Amino acid sequence: MPYLVETLLFLLPFAAYGLWRRMNPRTEPSTILLILAAVGAALTIGGGLWYGELRSLPPGATYVPAQLEGGHIEPGHAERPR
Q: Where are the transmembrane segments (predicted)?
């Protein structure tokens, strides 16, 4: 069921654009709308790359998953190679 919701959310903008084109067949999107869409796409891609770099492990580090020790949870962390 979650995959169905994700698929519908992914397809929603395409359906909205198709509906808009169907209702207004002779109108083209304005230049400002196209520029804003391009800026939004660039910001999304740039933000994803920045977040990925921010959260990545250092080169050569090994991830140690969270563990239960003595009744409390030891959070996951990166360990440097020895």
A: 32-51
